[in-house]
Amino acid sequence: MSQKILTHSTSKPEYKITKIIKSILMIAVIATSASYAHTPSFATSFNDVENHWAKSYIETASTYNAISGYTDGTFKPNAKIKRIEFIAIIVNSQGIDVRSPEKDEYWGQPFIEAALKSGLILSDEYGDLDELTFDQNISREEMASIVVNAYIYSGRLVEPTAMNEVSSKLTDLDTVSPRYYNRAIESVALGFISGDSNGTFSPKEHATRAQAAVLSYKLLAKLGVLTDEVLPENIVLSKTSINQGDLLKITLYHVTDTSSITLTQDLYPGFKWYDTGTSGVLEGYIPTNYSTTPGKHTLKIVNAVTGNTSTQTIVVTQRNFRVQNLTIDPGVESSTKTDEAYAQYRKYFNPSREVSSPIKYYTESFLLPVKGKLTTEFGESRIVNNALTSYRHAGIDIAAPRNSDVLATNTGKVMLAMHLTITGNSIVIDHGEGLFSVYFHLDKLFVNEGDLVTRGQRIGAVGSTGFSTGPHLHFTMSYYRFDIEPGFILYGESITKQNYLELMK
Fold first, then answer.
1. In contact, 202 and 159? CB cutoff 8 Å
2. How far is CA 190 from the centre of its chain?
3. DSSP E strands: which ranges in 53-114?
4. How far apart are CA 329 and CA 360, in angstroms?
5. First vs last Cα of the chain: how many Å apart?
6. 3-state SS string over 209-244?
7. Cβ contacts of 346 within 8 Å, gap of 6 or more
8. Are 113 and 58 in contact (CB under 8 A)?
9. Integer CA distances (angstroms), 1 to 106, 118, 170, 389, in order
10. Which of 235, 347, 449, 487 is the 20 to 30 A CA-CA neighbour of 417?
11. Considering only CA atoms, which of 180, 168, 169 is closest in space to residue 204?
12. Inter-CA distances, 152 with 5, 9, 203, 255, Å
């Protein structure tokens, strides 16, 4: 069997194209459980990769006629990929000779033999070397092993210092199968596979077609077969349709110069990008609430250096907000809603949400600070003592027994902890990247400004201080000073009087 060592210095353009066409992906050639005789349908775009994190990798490879999709124009990036499909991809990316399949033979048998002879896999690695075994979905640790073996097979080495650095960062190496332990570390050190944001490798998780596409692209780039060109910017939205009150997250991939990126949109004037800590990846947020105009909105990203333009459309769905009738003791109203009280509120509360850590304090999901009865929804209009107010309710009100524990919804830094005439004992916590949580009308405060608190930590007790009709917690979340519906952050949906009992379980 002949071996073709692929290096950048010896590759000619026409050679690269030929090898790329043969190698980067045979995913659709080997579509689902179809036979190897399936005919690929090459395309420059696919109708199901828009708003997908791997879009630029997939479409760039497609311009080389390297990736084929299904006959319905899809690529199915989130579908799982089988062992034999990935092995075939890497065997071809290495330029390893593969014999022709014999009549009625399992199409993958020649690739299995080629992978065994070249050391990409071992004879005892999967047990029985049969069709049933290789038609199983491939795991991340198996994929890591194959791609690192391919890299080493091409005459490359892995720097020990890089391995040491990675091994100290991954937190779940004890769950990696012993035979794949070193290869898992090496795959991250080489940049083939990224560890998760929480420091895990997730070795047993099954790989997707999108992950396989990116991995094969990176391997060819490292071997010099494919020029590691600048991939076009890829904008990914957390949702393409949101309700008023939701927070839209925007992730931008493949950014080399942030100063050259311009985002044009009409939803939120204070938009800003945050560095995720991953090279070339930025993220930002657009908050919405009852004041956000329903309908279609266009987000347009322009790179002044490359001239690349990317657009996405977001649909804001109108929400029917309730109207609440509220009777307040005139004495409470007159003593709390004074010019001095409003001046105090503006002096202390408003600035508490103007500066946020550029790095997230939290890594876990958000939790409800207290359980009880939902008495006021987000965005409600109020008629107080028969007079319609000019403001909307900026959070949710949860009635609970006095002195019930109030917990921090997530890890963060206390930006405000004091008594305010209007809102009573009040706490504001910065969770980073512009996200804040707010707690009003507390009976007691158990934290001080500047404290770092952890998710679920007791920070106060339910009370009825300030402009209040009874013991309850007014809880809201905001993007800086722009109030948003807490339910979307906690549960992915609004908290209403119809669903709160189910959500609070």
1. no
2. 23
3. 68-69
4. 42
5. 63
6. HHHHHHHHHHHHHHCCCCCCCCCCCEEEECCCEEEC
7. none
8. no
9. 21, 9, 38, 82
10. 487
11. 180
12. 11, 18, 21, 30
The backbone torsions φ and ψ at residue 13, rounded to the nearest 5 degrees and listed phi first, read -50, -45
CB of 425 within 8 A of CB of 465?
yes
| φ and ψ at residue 287, rounded to 5 degrees | -85, 150
List CB contacts of 62: < 8 A, sequence separation 6 or more: 42, 43, 44, 45, 46
Q: Contact 357/433 with Cβ under 8 angstroms?
A: yes
- Taking the model in full, what pTM does it have? 0.80
For the purposes of burial, counting CB atoms within 10 Å of the CB of 409, is it exposed (0-12), middle (13-18) or buried (19 or more)?
Answer: buried
Q: Phi then psi for 438, rounded to 5 degrees?
A: -130, 140
- Is 396 exposed, middle or buried, given 0-12, 13-18 or 19+ CB atoms closer than 10 A? buried
Per-residue pLDDT tens listing for the chain (505 residues): 333 222 223 333 343 334 434 444 444 444 333 333 333 333 457 899 999 999 988 887 676 555 567 888 898 999 999 999 889 888 877 778 899 989 999 999 999 999 999 999 999 999 888 899 999 999 999 999 999 999 998 888 877 777 777 777 778 888 999 999 999 989 988 888 876 666 788 899 999 989 988 888 888 788 877 665 668 888 899 999 999 999 999 999 988 777 888 999 999 999 999 988 888 899 999 999 999 999 999 999 998 888 888 888 999 999 888 776 666 666 665 666 788 999 999 999 999 999 999 999 999 999 999 999 999 999 887 666 665 565 688 999 999 999 999 999 999 999 999 999 999 999 999 999 999 999 999 999 999 999 999 999 999 999 999 988 899 999 999 999 999 999 999 999 999 999 999 999 8
Helix (H) or strand (E) holding 437: strand 435-445
Residue that is written with structure tokens 């077969």 in the block: 225
3-state SS assignment for residue 324: strand
HSE on the CB side for 464, CA within 13 Å? 11
Q: Distance between CA 274 and CA 96 in Å, rounded?
A: 43
Q: Which two tokens stand for residue 189?
A: 């050190």
Do 494 and 319 meet the contact criterion of CB atoms below 8 Å apart? Answer: yes
263: its two tokens:
């985002």
Rounded Cα–Cα distance for residues 76 and 41 (Å): 14
CA torsion sign for 156, 89, 144, 146 is negative
Cα dihedral 328/330/336/342 (nearest 10): 90
